[in-house]
Specification:
Strands 1, 2, 3, 4, 5 and 6 form a six-stranded antiparallel beta sheet that branches. The protein is an alpha+beta fold. The chain is built from seven helices and twelve strands.
């Protein structure tokens, strides 16, 4: 486990701020202790400093993962957010889209969200903003990027895409070997 470089930290925080804005600092300084991000094999893990100290006693060749995998860096030094980060991002999300029950399954199969499947959207959501996709019963289903702003959604045709799919909890089944 190694510390993120300054460039990697900047890229990671920019990606996280697309979804949770300035609440990124709340991920680090929590009431239950201080948390940190560490990299191992181009994957970024989120863990408490207590777990980090315990993990340092394990040899690198025996460690598979530690903490929660937030995503990975590509060879071009871009950060791809994994669905495993959803439980940490959802409480701090600035913008959300709620899906009607009939549209949930389509989203969980990896499809974009059409306006006909959208139940509600957070006020003043800008276009191309990262959003957390929720069910009508406030269960986080995944995250995506708003294809239309809140005002554009009100006037849009029912078949227009309002949210581009990024990741969903169906990936736990579809891509379980790639999530660690």
């Amino acid at each position: 486990m190694k510390r993120l470089s300054e460039q990697q930290t900047k890229v990671l925080f920019e990606k996280l701020s697309k979804y949770i804005g300035t609440n990124v600092k709340l991920l680090i300084d929590r009431s239950d202790g201080t948390y940190c991000f560490r990299e191992m094999k181009s994957r970024v893990y989120y863990m408490s400093e207590k777990i980090l100290k315990l993990a340092e006693t394990v040899p690198k060749e025996h460690m598979v993962s530690v903490g929660t995998c937030f995503g990975k860096f590509t060879k071009g030094n871009k950060f791809i957010l994994h669905i495993t980060a959803l439980t940490y991002l959802a409480p701090y999300a600035q913008y959300k889209i709620w899906l009607k029950p009939a549209a949930e399954q389509q989203f969980l199969y990896g499809n974009n969200v059409a306006k006909s499947g959208m139940g509600r959207i957070t006020e003043n959501t800008p276009v191309y903003q990262g959003v957390i996709v929720m069910s009508m019963s406030d269960v986080p289903l995944g995250f995506g990027v708003a294809a239309k702003s809140t005002n554009d959604c009100k006037l849009a045709d029912p078949l227009v895409t309002v949210c581009f799919h990024q990741a969903d909890i169906g990936e736990y089944i579809r891509s379980e070997e790639n999530l660690i």
